[in-house]
């Protein structure tokens, strides 16, 4: 099994932290984490990376505004501005490692970022998998509104509730909700993370939506996966994306919430590997 290492690289004048695994000579897969409180490369992807790294070079960055990546003082004032900054960040990460093209796997807000990357630099992207992706067409749920306004009540108990709501059955997380929430709460109370988060969600999450006129021009192969019980981005969003993307397949997992890569890791890994290896 390939080792996963922690690394940093300079991207557009600031330092990006990322997880790196697999042979540098193999096709690259870049994993893009979601946007909830405490999200980062490790919390979203560390347990999933071994499913890919024997066959691919896997990079999972802390997107700017999250985790151990630098939090620049001069931050965008809108969600769409943050997405543009993150597109530039991932492209700079690829350039720093001589990666001309990469497969993208995006969870939630990371899925919206993947589609924005396809819009901005389609020649740099090979295949895309979106998991519980934002960027489609769905109405904000009470759960997602609690998430984007988390710092109005940034308590440990509020984070415990959010963590439970992200999954269908919290007993499958492999650790107690209290322990997971306590670890993440220390992270999200760092002043720079709070500042970035509040600035990112100072405008509506609907800004991340990708217009149908753009979706129908994305000829890349897409694998869409969604948890049937996802209450943060409801499955109708992926149905909508599948209807507008010209080369997309969709799989909906029953008894699964927002974190397919955790709740259905084995089954999703099989789907993803077959999708990436297919000739199309």
UniProtKB/TrEMBL annotation:
Its EC number is 3.7.1.9. It is an enzyme of class 3 (hydrolase). Keywords: Hydrolase. GO terms for cellular component: membrane. It comes from the Bacteria. SUPFAM superfamilies: alpha/beta-Hydrolases. It holds the Pfam family Abhydrolase_6. Signal peptide: none annotated. Gene3D superfamilies: alpha/beta hydrolase. InterPro entries: AB_hydrolase_1, AB_hydrolase_fold, AB_hydrolase_sf, Epox_hydrolase-like. One of its GO terms (molecular function) is 2-hydroxymuconate-semialdehyde hydrolase activity. Residues 29-269 form the AB hydrolase-1 domain. PANTHER family: AB HYDROLASE SUPERFAMILY PROTEIN YCLE (PTHR43798:SF31), MONOACYLGLYCEROL LIPASE (PTHR43798). This is 2-hydroxymuconate-semialdehyde hydrolase. It comes from Sphaerisporangium siamense.
